[in-house]
Amino acid sequence: MSTQYQALLAEHASLASFTPWVSRSALPALATQCLVAAFVLTFYFSTLRDQLAKEVGVAALASVAGGFGLVFAFCLVGANV
């Protein structure tokens, strides 16, 4: 083996293992809360009329909540994204 490869192996062995930002035990609650928030905001969005700024804001929040909720749900079942 080359010396560069040996150095790379030594560096790899010395690094700390990966630790996720969000604990695995917190994923069910986070997924549920985000998805419920997305559904509630989507319903609220459907009731707004003639208020473009508020519609865009509520739609953006619903989209972000739904996106994070799906990512948390995927990570919960083992499809780490």
UniProtKB/TrEMBL annotation:
<protein>
    <recommendedName>
        <fullName>Dolichyl-diphosphooligosaccharide-protein glycosyltransferase subunit OST5</fullName>
    </recommendedName>
</protein>
<dbReference type="Pfam" id="PF05251">
    <property type="entry name" value="Ost5"/>
</dbReference>
<keyword id="KW-0812">Transmembrane</keyword>
<comment type="function">
    <text>Subunit of the oligosaccharyl transferase (OST) complex that catalyzes the initial transfer of a defined glycan (Glc(3)Man(9)GlcNAc(2) in eukaryotes) from the lipid carrier dolichol-pyrophosphate to an asparagine residue within an Asn-X-Ser/Thr consensus motif in nascent polypeptide chains, the first step in protein N-glycosylation. N-glycosylation occurs cotranslationally and the complex associates with the Sec61 complex at the channel-forming translocon complex that mediates protein translocation across the endoplasmic reticulum (ER). All subunits are required for a maximal enzyme activity.</text>
</comment>
<dbReference type="InterPro" id="IPR007915">
    <property type="entry name" value="TMEM258/Ost5"/>
</dbReference>
<feature type="transmembrane region" description="Helical">
    <location>
        <begin position="58"/>
        <end position="79"/>
    </location>
</feature>
<dbReference type="GO" id="GO:0008250">
    <property type="term" value="C:oligosaccharyltransferase complex"/>
</dbReference>
<comment type="similarity">
    <text>Belongs to the OST5 family.</text>
</comment>
<keyword id="KW-0472">Membrane</keyword>
<keyword id="KW-1133">Transmembrane helix</keyword>
<dbReference type="GO" id="GO:0006487">
    <property type="term" value="P:protein N-linked glycosylation"/>
</dbReference>
<comment type="subunit">
    <text>Component of the oligosaccharyltransferase (OST) complex.</text>
</comment>
<feature type="transmembrane region" description="Helical">
    <location>
        <begin position="26"/>
        <end position="46"/>
    </location>
</feature>
